[in-house]
Specification:
Length: about 200
């Protein structure tokens, strides 16, 4: 039992490391301009998940830890906190850090200007998401209750839709009740016929 528990814990730890590595690769792609938050969310990344420590976030976005603390104090990029108070950054935070660094270092824009630009970009992104939702056919979203009991909209996964289309009810050709009873009567079995629906995946 103890050995099985250790094996399970090792597997979970390995899976956690793999997931964290995937998020690091996604963050690097965002910083390099090869990906954006919308694309990351579309393929299944939780862009709000607090994954990165201060050191990891600083390294990914090429921002000094002291600058991270300054951004936090000013409300420019405010990370989530663990129960112990440690800062944890999400993919959205990494994207904002990379943009702030570019605007500051390459464009020479001050922090007040950077804050306003990032606010406008976030508003623009939210408007794009709303337009995209309006363009989708009816029934492409479902609603669920969040942890606080509120109702939230959840987009259906394209992969889940593909899976559901593959799932079908296969009503296999069955003998008629009379032919089954006649056949079983010859074999000395008087049980009646029952209909069956078989589910299959193509």
């Amino acid at each position: 039992m103890a050995r099985s528990s250790r094996t399970s814990q090792a597997s979970q730890a390995r899976a956690t490391r793999q997931i964290k590595r995937l998020y690091e690769m996604c963050a690097m792609a965002i910083v390099a301009g090869r990906a954006d938050l919308d694309g990351a969310a579309e393929v299944g990344f939780d862009i709000e998940l607090p994954v990165f420590s201060v050191g990891a976030a600083g390294e990914l976005a090429n921002v000094h830890p002291q600058t991270l603390r300054q951004y936090d104090r000013l409300g420019l990029v405010v990370p989530q906190r663990t129960e112990g108070g440690a800062r944890r950054y999400s993919l959205r935070d990494i994207s904002r850090l990379a943009q702030a660094q570019q605007l500051s270092q390459e464009e020479g824009i001050n922090l007040a200007g950077i804050t306003r630009i990032l606010e406008l970009e976030e508003e623009n992104r939210e408007l794009r998401r709303q337009v995209e939702r309006l363009r989708k056919p009816a029934g492409s979203s479902v609603f669920a209750a969040d942890a606080d009991g509120g109702i939230v909209e959840v987009e259906r996964s394209q992969r889940a839709r593909m899976w559901r289309r593959q799932l079908r009810a296969d009503a296999r050709q069955l003998p008629s009740p009379s032919s089954v009873r006649a056949e079983r009567a010859e074999e000395g079995d008087d049980m009646g016929s029952r209909s069956v629906v078989v589910w299959g995946i193509r």
